[in-house]
Amino acid sequence: MTTRRDFLALASTTVPLLRPGAAALAEPFARDDRAPAAIASDEDAWVEVQRAYTVDRSILNLNNGGVCPAPRIVQEALRRYQEHAQEAPAYVLWRLQDPEKETVRAGLAGLFGRDPEEIAITRNASEALENVQLGLALERGDEVVTTDQDYPRMLTTWRQRERRDGIVLRQVELPVPVEDDAAVVSAFEAAITPRTKVIHLCHVINLTGQILPVKRVVALARPRGIDVVVDGAHAFGHLDFRHDAVDCDFYGTSLHKFLSAPHGTGMLFVRKERLRDVWPLMAAGPELDGDVRKFEEIGTHSVGVRLAIAEAIAFHLGIGPARKEARLRFLRDRWAKRVAGMANIRLWTSLAPGRSTGVALVEVLGVPAVKLQEHLWLKHRIYTVAIEHARFRGIRVSPHVCTTVHEVDRFGDALEKVAREGLPS
Ligand SMILES: Cc1ncc(COP(=O)(O)O)c(C=O)c1O
After folding, report:
1. Which of 20, 37, 305, 315 has the most CB atoms at less than 10 Å from its CB?
2. Nearest alpha-carbon partner for 63 in 385, 361, 390, 350
3. First and final CA of the chain: distance in angstroms?
4. What pLDDT, in 10s, does the model give residues 181-215?
5. What is the pLDDT of residues 280-300, one digit of tens each?
6. Mean per-residue pLDDT for 412-423?
7. Which of 67, 121, 124 to mutate to test the pocket of ligand 1 (most atoms within 8 A of CB)?
């Protein structure tokens, strides 16, 4: 596992990373050698992390799955970089700041457990994934297999290829929740035909927090010459994993979700041997054909947004990925286990170890999801998101490391009251 010390050592051998303010990094567990699960439930241990954010606690934001806040040190770094760029934009952006992206690339590669030459910094998960979805050579009649729970924009992207290039998109239905990985593998296996060229799936399904057995799907696909494109938007910075746990050739993720990097950041991993197989979304010259930087040829942009990812990585490593994962699951369990046994509560997320993340989907039977979401917001100022899928529904609840136990309990109280008494008329 990359530690914060490794990351800083690496940074100091490339280009200067630390700026004034970086000394204020939260490293709250430096002298705490308890197991992550023990730390996860010790509220006092999380105070420094909670205070590192500038969130508005007059409302309770339980939609961090949409996009996360960044801690103060990330916000400050971003501000510094952007102010600096205003001094002499062409000089500062292109001569001073742009080369420092390499430190961020190295940091992301360290987190993902791969070579920096396989990591592109993008504006979000959509851009990362669309580079691959639109950049792989596919012919009329070629088939792409995905699920009925993939992200709408990613499905739209494949559907545009259907209209434009005549490919065929097949969507398999996965059980909700998945309690058995074999069911996922067989669902994909059953959809494979001689024309299947790509399988596209989430590492973590955003609707339910379900973790999918990506590595087993890759093991199914690779011997058949099928590419696997993995949407890691909800997994990266949330689960403590490295590339060898998924083993795919293509992985795209947001960084502005659970990594807490600035808004407008994402990452694309392409295995080195596959770089030449993917055309970038925005054109690059032939000299970049085999260079991962071809995915970054997007014209003038704020380099500071990207450089401040380095602070988010340092903050993430300061907490420790395993401790963070355990804490997010602890917060989920805190409210979910409390209501799980109630007759009219339906959890669409498995609480079994290793099956899901800190995100969960809950339905109060007989209460429309949108009405429940509205009630929580209007009556309690608790912000969640209503999910209406053809096969399941509810409110999605996604705390972050800035969320306190007191806040999660406030949500638990409100949910339990609706489950007992229904919505007020
Ligand atoms: C599973 C999944 N994929 C892709 C995306 C798109 O992410 P971004 O907004 O960073 O492009 C999201 C966003 O919520 C998501 O949940």
Report:
1. 315
2. 385
3. 52
4. 999 999 999 999 999 999 999 999 999 999 999 99
5. 999 999 999 999 999 999 999
6. 98
7. 124
Do residues 312 and 259 touch, judged by C-beta distance below 8 A? yes
Is residue 253 within 6 Å of ligand 1 at its C-beta? no
Query: Would you place residue 60 in the very low, low, confident or very high pLDDT band (cuts 50, 70, 90)?
Result: very high
Of the residues 122, 204, 205, 231, which should be mutated to test ligand 1's pocket, given the most ligand atoms within 8 Å of the CB? 231
In DSSP terms, 396 is beta-bridged to 361, 385
Residues 139, 167: Cα–Cα separation, whole Å: 7
Can you tell me which atom of ligand 1 is nearest the CA of 202? Answer: 1
Q: Does 266 contact ligand 1 (Cβ within 6 A)? A: yes
How far apart, in whole angstroms, are the C-alpha atoms of residue 397 and residue 386?
A: 9
Domains of the chain and CATH, by start: 97-312 (3.40.640.10), 322-420 (3.90.1150.10)
DSSP count for the chain of H helices, then E strands = 15, 13
Is the shortest distance between the CB of 125 and ligand 1 below 6 Å?
A: yes
Q: Is the peptide bond before 177 cis (omega within 30 degrees of 0)?
A: yes
124 Cα nearest atom in ligand 1: 10
